[in-house]
Structure formats: structure tokens, C-alpha cells
Predict the structure.
Amino acid sequence: MRRKLVIGNWKMHGKHQANAQLLEALLPALAESAGVETAVCPPYPYLAQVAELLAGSTLKLGAQNLSRFDQGAHTGEVSAHMLRELGCQYVLVGHSERRSLYGEDDRLVAEKFAAALCADLVPVLCVGESLAQRRGEITERVVAEQIQAVLQRVGINGLAGGVIAYEPVWAIGTGETATPAQVQAVHRHIRSLLAEQDPAVAAAMRILYGGSVKAANAGELFAQTDVDGGLIGGASLDAASFAAICAAAQR
Ligand code: PGA
């Protein structure tokens, strides 16, 4: 049985006071979803603050990005072991905003995935097609190539140490959600790709969906056979919404 996982991606939002208020409301509200694994990914400067606020709770900490390098002359970068020291357990890798706005390609994403594994972080590999690629009916190929790049770098056993998040680019922050049937089709495709390499890894791999998940649509998305939770952007900034999404994963 794959335990459902819901991760909040705060993106570049937050302030000390707002973070504290959000978590103060969120932590008690998560009592409804004790069977679900939950995490939040605040911006780097707030990791220490949030780690302190999460102490003693079941809500886990993650980061939104990391360097492929362990240390050295890399001004402005943050390494996997630094994230680990700050209490992170998860790290997003290859989010579409990193790919499209900061030029991260499949090779760099694979290096980052490997760097996360080396520091005992669980990398959350984000994959997904653009609107043009969906219209061109190459969604499955795009997603397969994104996963293949990581498989080439760390192998199926390395991939098994992470989580996959399917996030169609056209559904991120747009209010447009993929239909449950569209999501299930891509998730099943991803699982079958992994099964070609190792059926046990495929069966155990958690595949999250992300892209305009809200309290109102989370239930039917999470009810799909191959959907093991969600990566939540906008709705994770509101305690009631995020708690309701986590509760939907519990059902
Ligand atoms: P959204 O973002 O929920 O705001 O669409 C999802 C994500 O980018 O991870």
C-alpha cells in the first residue's frame, strides 16, 4: 500500500509573521489527515523558522530546489547537505518553473536528483508537458524522456529513493486542472515505464499530481488508482484549503 503524500510548495511567498500564522492554523487542522504524509516547502530563508515551528509535529519540511554541487565556489547556491542540516527531508527537483524560467534541462535535473539522494533527501522529480506538447499529442513521450534522464543517471534503484510529481505545465497556477481521467492516464503510463525496469519499484513508487489542485477537486483526483497524493502550489498558502486537500487524501 502506498501511503498518500501531500506536499505544499509555497514558491516565492512568505514572511516571518505570515508563515507563523499559516502554520499555527494548519498544524491543528491536519489532525483530520493523520494517515497522510504531509510536507511543506518554504523558500530557503524561512527553512530554519519553519523547521522550528514544525518541531514535534508530523508535518515534514522540504525545499524547492538545490544545487547539483556539494560545496565550493557556487555563489548563491544551496547544497543538499545544507538542506539536510536545516531539517529538510524532501526537495523538489526540476519544477517546471525551474525548467522554463531558469533553464534547467533534463541533465541538470538528473544531477540534482542524484545530489539529493547522496544527502539522504527524498527528491520529488517534477515532470510534465506544455500545452503545445499536449496538443501535439506527445505528452507520454515528453514525460518518458524526463524520467529517462534521471534513470540514466541514478538507475531504477536510485529513482526508487524519490517521488515523482506529474505536473502538466498548462495546469500550474492557471486554475485549469487536468481531468481525473487525463491525470490517471499519464500516471498509469509513468508506472508502466517503471515496471519495464522493475515491477516492485513501479508498484511502490508514489506518483503525485500537481496543477491547480483545490479542496473542491482534490477528492476525485486522489481517488484515481495511480494518484498517490498531490503537489500543491497556490492552495497550500491557505491553511483551511491545504488541510482540506490533505483530508481528501485520507479518504
Ligand atoms: P498550483 O502549483 O497548485 O498553484 O497550480 C502547483 C505547483 O507548481 O507545484
In short: Strands lie at 5-9, 37-41, 60-63, 90-93, 122-127, 163-166, 207-210, 229-232. The chain has one domain: 5-26+36-250.
